[in-house]
Amino acid sequence: MQQRGVRMPRTAILRRGRALRRARAEIRYLTLEQIDEQLAALADWPQLQAMVATFIYAGLRREEALG
Fold first, then answer.
1. Which of 47, 52, 58 is nearest to 37 (CA)?
2. pLDDT value for 35
3. Residue 65 and residue 35: Cα distance in Å, rounded?
4. Residue 30 in 3-state DSSP?
């Protein structure tokens, strides 16, 4: 978003000349059981299983993985 030629960060919303911050999203983590379930579901596809395991154990977000 741009305001008078100045690029504003995505987290800022302008109201009456002041920037208001949005609340941060809650961070959620998979349990070990959920990780095992995810990897077991991909047992027939070892290449995809390795990719998913890398994403999970490296802590990549969807946006980072797609990039």
1. 52
2. 94
3. 17
4. coil
Q: Are the C-beta atoms of 52 and 42 separated by less than 8 Å?
A: yes
pTM higher than 0.85:
no
In the chain, domain spans: 2-66
Q: Contacts for 50-59 with beta carbons within 8 Å, 24 or more apart?
A: 56/30
**Residue in the structure block whose two tokens are 């379930």:** 37
Strand-pairing partners, residue 12, are 21
Say whether 48 sits in a helix, a strand or coil: helix
Q: Is 56 left (phi over 0), alpha (psi -120 to 50) or beta?
A: alpha
**CA 41, 44, 48, 50 torsion-angle sign:** positive
